[in-house]
Amino acid sequence: MQTDAVINEARLTLDRLVILQLRFFQQHKRYAKASELPPLQVLAPEVATQYRLTAVINGGAAYRLELLPLDPTAWPALSVDHTGRRSRTGAVSDA
Q1: What is the pTM of this model?
Q2: pLDDT tens profile 39-82
């Protein structure tokens, strides 16, 4: 898979994880830890070869989902928080 395709799939995976977080919150009145979400290998095997998932929970009412690259020199870190704000940092040259 090409770099752009993997990054696009990673973004779509974050979108799916946001939906899962919202469902988890409705049931449990708190956001899920990374260990309580489906593994990346199940959601997006191509993404799992390049990224690992972390979930930063802030007091139960806020979260940030992060896809951290296994090789930070080759892939950007991607994240989304409870407000929908996305970020992309590092790697993949624009040259």
Answers
A1: 0.87
A2: 999 999 999 999 999 999 988 789 999 999 999 999 999 999 99
Comparing C-alpha atoms, which of 56, 58, 94, 55 is closest to residue 76? 94
3-state secondary structure of 77: strand
CA–CA separation, 67 vs 46, rounded Å? 13
Helices and strands, number each (H, E), in the chain: 3, 4
Average pLDDT of the chain? 92
- Look at residues 95, 88, 82 and name the one whose alpha carbon lies nearest to residue 8: 88
Could you give the CA distance from residue 4 to residue 75 in angstroms, rounded to a whole number?
Answer: 10
Taking a C-beta distance cutoff of 8 angstroms, is the pair 64, 79 a contact? yes
Neighbour tally for 52: CB within 10 Å:
13
Instruction: State how far the Cα of 95 lies from the Cα of 85, in Å rounded to an integer.
Output: 26
Q: Nearest CA to 17 among 69, 55, 61, 72?
A: 55
